[in-house]
User: Fold these one by one.
Assistant:
Number 1:
Amino acid sequence: MNAPAVELGEEAVALERLRYSYERGACVLDIPQWSIPKGSHLFLRGPSGSGKTTLLNLLAGMLVAPEARLEVLGQSMSALGSRRRDRFRAQHIGVVFQQFNLIPYLSVLDNLRLAAHFTGNTRDLERRASELLAELRLGQDLLQRKAAKLSVGQQQRVAIARALINRPNMLLVDEPTSALDPEARDAFAELLLQNFASSDNTLIFVSHDTTLAAHFSQRADMRELNRAWREEGSYAG
Amino acid sequence: MLVKLAWQSLMHRRGSVLLAILSVSVSLFVLFGVEQIRSHAKDSFNRTVSGVDLIVGARTGPINLLLYSVFRMGSPSANISWQTYQRVADEPAVAWSIPISLGDSHKGYRVVGTSQDFFEHFRFGKGRPLELAQGTAFDDTLDVVLGAEVARKLGYDLGDSVVLAHGLGSTSFHNHDDRPFKVTGILQPTGTPTDQALYISLQGMEAVHDRHWDGSALEPQTITAFMLGLNSPVKTFQLQRQINTARGEPLLAILPGVALSQLWQMLRVVENILLLVAALVVLASLLGLCIMLLTSIRERRREIALLRTIGAGPLQLFLLIQIEALLVLVLGACVALSVLSIGLWIAEPLLAAHYGVYLEGSIVSEQSMQLFGIIAAATFVVTLIPAIGVYRESLKRGLEA
């Protein structure tokens, strides 16, 4: 609640000279310039080792590249201190992973409450939670169930709910469907887009599964973006 | 919310957490137990005698004199003649005197030959006088007054007859069977060694040892020690010196307070060693807790990455680990204190009967709270290792695919 109000620019992501290398490692990411307009639904194709996870970490403010100019939702990431960056991420950026999106021993409701807790805004959380569950076509009885007791498909949908509980303006989704069977993948992508579709909201969907690309209005490929990428690259992204 | 998360996380890892709680509670049990016995031992020590200005006995070490005259432990080295006692008791500075004659026992409890002055002048605790719970003080030669513990343990009532044994120990080959004593009074409990003795008159003491006693009044030949109350405390040192340097029978006069603290000084070494051992046991268990948390962090890397993703800062992760450690500590302390209360409840009569240590008052004393505060601080310091580990890890690592 105390984080600065974000001035939303026209571009959801604007970056220049973004280079990143892990400690004592080779450069894994080198993007001279790139931008994503606000409201984009971007399908970012990238095999493993293409630097996509590093890019997502930088966009989410988990990692920092001090020399680069990186603005996310109009906010310069390197200008924020680490605590403000954590708060910014909690409030404005939702993240869904391939797996392990939920604390297994907490109930679904507590997982959602925890996500809200870090933004400092837990007001009418239960109402928001049950609304989200309904929108994601999940039963209300799931709220009290432990996350570990859910099926994989349910877990991924609850992961969307968790990512959306704070009404973020940007959603970063990293290989969310690789644990799902093919029919469920399309349904998942549809559901995601339905619930997040808005002119303000930017979705970055990272996958190596090009069959899903049809759902998205824009496409990009890590291998073209990232100059540090080599086919036989010896680094892990 | 962090507390809830910490709690659920501990519940999730029930097995190893229970072991950690168990190890913490065992170590705290040892520490609190030692502290408990230490403080109560000191208390009950210091309250055994009060209002007595000097204790006089045959020349021996001051602590030995204190032990046998007040605590009824150990053996007197020699007796004092009745004449010498009379001479000192008649000094103008002396307000009252209590003669003490030891040597007999009854079923393991010592028999103290004394006079009516004992009931009148002896004080314990903060100057509390002795009171009779039932009956009256001894009047006749073969009357006996029982300490509260003796009456309770042996189930004696007023009017019961008691046979004394020569020497100490619960089995004696030489019983004074022919001279049974009659119980005329039972003292109120005092929580001091006074509860564990039988009191008879000096005449009675003479009578059981005189085979040819015909029932007539006897003049005591010797006594073991005596306590003095003075008219003015200012005279204490003067009289002490006078007794200690007097010619004739070699005597020793001690100030009970000084001798008590000397005795306590001796015990202090033991006390400190016990406390040190207990503290090391606690430290070992806290290190065990630290190891448990470190391994848990390795298992929970993805959980921690997830928490980072949804906006938890490194500081919050640091706190999460600290809260988990604190919860284990508090749970361990609860277990330790409840087991200790039960243990003390069981052990209290045994300790009182065999060692004269009386455990009174509650476990949750100011001191034990202080001790707990120190342990909590130590836990915080030890948990810094895993907590800082998480803190730094979370700064370096990003999301994991």
Number 2:
Amino acid sequence: METRRVVFIGVGGQGNLLASRLLGEASLSKGIPAVVSEIHGMAQRGGIVESAVLMGDATSPIVSNGEADVLVGFEPLETLRALGKCNKETVVITNTHTLPPFTVSIGQGTYPPVEEIMDLIRGKAGKVISLDGNKMAAEAGNPLSLNMVMLGALIGSGAISIGPDDMKEVISSSTKEAFLESNLKAFDLGLKSAQ
Amino acid sequence: MHKLLSQDSGKEMLLLGNEAIARGALEAGVSFATCYPGTPSSEIPEQFFRISQETDLYFEYSTNEKVALEVGAAAAISGLRTMVTMKHVGLNVAADPLMTLAYVGVKGGMVIINADDPFLFSSQNEQDNRYYARLSSLPMLEPTSTQEMKDMTVAAFDLSEALELPVIIRTTTRLNHIRGHVTLGDLRPIKTKDTFQKNPFHFVCVPAVSRNLHKLLLEKYDQSLEKSENSGYNQTIGDGKWGIVANGVSFNYVRDAISDLGISDKVSLLRLGFSWPIPKALCASFLKQVDKALVVEELEPVNENDLKAIAQENRITIPIKGKGVGGLSRLFEYDPGMVRKAIAEYFGVDYQAPEGLDLSNVPDLPGRPPNLCAGCPHRATYYAVKEAYGADAINPTDIGCYTLGLLPPISMADMVICMGSSVSSSCGFSSATDQDVVSFIGDSTFFHSGITGLINAVHNNHKFTLVILDNGTTAMTGHQPHPGVDTDPMGVELTQISLEELVRGCGVKDVHLVRPFKLKKTIESVKAAKDYDGVSVIISKEFCPLFARATGQQKKVRPFQVDQDKCKNHRDCINKLACPAMFLEGERVEINSDLCIGCTICAQVCPENAILPLKK
């Protein structure tokens, strides 16, 4: 089975670990071998959080530079920073809503204008899907459902062999009742924006 | 029911590596588990903590790793199947009991999980603990996947009982924190109590006893070697003339690289899974069947050196290399591309690495280091201490979230080497210099290894202030309890030990209890401690807000906002506190009301009183 390497990049608190875990669950339910790798601990205190899902025959749990098939970025600056994982064929899916790090607030560096960030990403990556994920999450009724929006966009891009129904089944079985409706709505908004 | 208690043998689950280890222990009939948490091992005891609340499993968060191993040793000597888990540097703390427990051995199977951390994702060093197997003569197993983490744990318990020795399973962060498919096996029944059979001439390690026990250990070592030679976890795959040796997660990189490079017919791959004692005969026959060998192992050239010695003993003269080939170094972790490249280079395979993107015109991007959370009480304590002591005092610090006080604008961390070093190094600094010394240690870390340093400080008449950051939990590793915690809200009734009584019991006369969100009073207390001629302790008590939220102990408070009419843009708030809830909108400071939890520190710091509760 051909290996698909999906890298998720985000900021602590954005929920990308849950997104990668659910993708792993969906692979399991479809009978596709998958390894998910996560980083816990110090990195979660507002720092950069990277996870990866390798679907197919590969047994290595991580993705080397230049070898991602898909990069899902939850924050534009972090998407740009993670472009080293990509090559010309990589599908880049990125949120456009910015979350400036505190280093910017205290004057250690400046956050480039988001248009500049997006121009750089578009100028380099082969295929770029961009969306205002936070806006869609808010529209879905839960600001914390950004990860569902991004998961929806990933499935909508068609870059991996998991369909919307399979993904939604996994989301339904692992979401608390109170958040189910907003999570599915967020997923659908992301899905449509990427189709 | 906890998902790891599933009776559904044959069921496939997506498990975290650490969950797979816990499941393996349950399948092996573990009845006794101890630990001190530490990334990347912490999710193993997290499962045991919850499972012990619904089964007969005995589990405890011990005060430190040495204690955990000694508590577990008694259980295993009494006949219970026992697991003790820790991170790699935790085994340094537990090294003292480990070395002589190896002499004494065990009756019930005992498995020690040792989690190494190549690349130092969340550690102070990246030492290679395969050396501990060599130092102690204990068997070591190294899994490569989630499935194997479960299966090998079961096998390790059986091995331990057969050899009457503790068995060490060595993982690395990339294994602990991967999720993969695991097929469940049967849960064995557990034995929750047994009887200790007295035998002082075996268990009391005076010199005359230990001389015999060392002999016994070497006999067991020979038995271990025999088992290692015949273990299914040590095997040669393929019969080509290019030899590759791999262990742990590197085995996956090698296997994928062989497939990617299309060289499987040319390669003999020796996998070392029961890696100590190293199977000498198997290695020798492997070396005899290849023309040259490449050893792929993260961190130290442990297998490489052993293979070279085995080659020498067997008069084999083929080239054996590892470190220095391609990008293979003693530093950090490996990755698939690096291993592919090294294999291609060593064996002369035509290979073009995938072409990455040209990122040469990407400007310098602002960093995003981890930061203390919005509303973290440590930020308030740091502010108060700096107000009282100024920026020139020496600040020994310790291991926990508060180590992030290293970063500007707080910049109040001058030295940390290990758990507890804040207190003892303060003794040294205060005597070796004339500088002020004020040090920081978390509550859990103080119980772990700060107490002995504090007794030392009082006894030897040192002069410094120790700030104990008492946030009611072990925050960094995921909110485990410790002896100072009220565990009732977590569903277990354990005896809480008063930090203040403990500190006074260590002989400290000048003790201050402060609530860090009361800034003015806290600053006054720190000033009083600074003026005291001797050892002062400040206990700064406020819940970790993440823990308070998780356990329903959070107070209802309103978030704050900046009154832009009053604000004169001094920016003391942002420049001195750098709370992640604050950001600049153009040139004006704003507060993100989704992140702000109303700790009020910025409002207390603002010279214009321009930070006010958000209007409803």
